[in-house]
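Sequence design from tokenized structure. All designs in this work follow the same two-part layout: the structure record, then the generated sequence. An example of the structure record is given first.
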């Protein structure tokens, strides 16, 4: 398993700088929650679940390294920390899910000694990390049922070990199917503009001994026409109650291409990615990133500086284009109705907790 992130007993976060992969495996170390927010905003730490995990530890660090004996100031500082982390990126539900959990723990313990509050926050951050690893495992098992004995799977962006607390979501399904002895070949979209496919997914698949070809994003339809793709599996940054999903820009094109070629299009994500409070994907904020991600390659300008650029980081896949959504509970088929899932999700978290407490 790739070591992507660790919170140490010196209250520092050590994390793999994903912007430098695969050419450099460099770990950064910080005691400052603002660096965690910066690492998320700059994609040194990325992928919806990992962003949430990092933010949770950012909260613990922000509280630990703040020196006060005044309760009011302590509280004001806590909300300043969570606000800074919340503003790091807008789209992935997991970030807000993690901060909501940390805030709930803070508010439930607010009358206690500062050290006890900090301990409770650290336990919650560890739980968010461990639960995510467990959810990935279960997504892998559930999703592997969708794959036959010999399959070619196309994936976009990186929804693997590097994006989560465990083996990944979309890639977790592939790793699990491979472990079951299935013969899985992967087509990896390079994923312009930040190349999460060629830099991260290719790196991960190589590490895990999965056979793949790297392709440019615009080649996918050709492969489908030639009958070379059996299914597409992607992760998600946020899923609405009706099953609309938002994922890396280019996912919508893949779903449209799948519909045309009658190829299944699957989305894999944990319950922490589902936004139970929104009805449809139209309500999801899509992050717009810097034009320089498109007009420069490795810092070198490749266009005139004054040209107009659009650079949304994600796009919306309408539920009618999604063949199935794989979560840690089951494979969901349309029409999507996560009505009972919210409750199931909460009881699942409490089951894991009571297992941890040895109840
Ligand atoms: O901009 P990124 O690299 O954070 O985008 C990541 C994705 O779009 C992933 O597919 C998504 O977060 C799911 S990760 C399990």
């Amino acid at each position: 398993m790739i070591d992507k992130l660790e919170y140490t007993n010196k209250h520092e976060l050590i994390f793999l700088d994903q912007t430098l992969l695969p050419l450099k495996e460099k770990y950064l170390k910080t005691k400052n929650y603002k660096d965690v927010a910066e690492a998320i905003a700059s994609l040194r730490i990325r992928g919806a679940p990992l962003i949430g995990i990092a933010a949770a530890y950012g909260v613990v660090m922000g509280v630990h390294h703040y020196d006060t004996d005044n309760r009011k100031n302590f509280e004001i500082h806590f909300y300043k920390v969570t606000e800074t982390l919340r503003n790091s990126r807008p789209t992935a539900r997991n970030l807000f899910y993690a901060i909501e959990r940390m805030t709930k723990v803070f508010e439930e313990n607010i009358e206690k000694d500062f050290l006890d509050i900090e301990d409770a926050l650290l336990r919650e951050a560890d739980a968010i990390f461990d639960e995510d690893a467990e959810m990935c495992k279960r997504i892998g098992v559930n999703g592997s049922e969708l794959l036959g004995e010999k399959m070619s799977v196309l994936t976009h962006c990186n929804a693997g070990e590097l994006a989560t607390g465990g083996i990944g979501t979309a890639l977790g399904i592939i790793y699990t199917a491979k472990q079951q002895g299935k013969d899985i070949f992967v087509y990896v979209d390079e994923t312009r503009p930040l190349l999460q496919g060629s830099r991260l997914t290719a790196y991960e698949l190589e590490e895990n001994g999965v056979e793949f070809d790297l392709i440019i994003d615009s080649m996918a339809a050709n492969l489908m026409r030639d009958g070379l793709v059996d299914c597409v599996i992607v992760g998600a940054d946020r899923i609405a109650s009706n099953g609309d999903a938002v994922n890396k820009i280019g996912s919508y094109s893949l779903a449209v291409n799948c519909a045309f070629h009658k190829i299944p299009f699957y989305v894999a994500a944990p319950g922490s990615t589902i936004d139970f409070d929104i009805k449809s994907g139209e309500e999801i904020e899509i992050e717009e990133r810097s034009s320089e991600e498109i007009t420069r390659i490795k810092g070198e300008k490749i266009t005139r500086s004054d040209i107009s650029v659009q650079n949304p980081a994600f796009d919306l896949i309408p539920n009618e284009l999604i063949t199935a959504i794989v979560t840690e509970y089951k494979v969901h088929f349309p029409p999507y109705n996560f009505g009972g899932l919210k409750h199931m999700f909460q009881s699942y978290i409490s089951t894991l907790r009571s297992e941890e407490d040895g109840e």
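The mean pLDDT is 95. We note this feature because it recurs in several other targets discussed in the main text.
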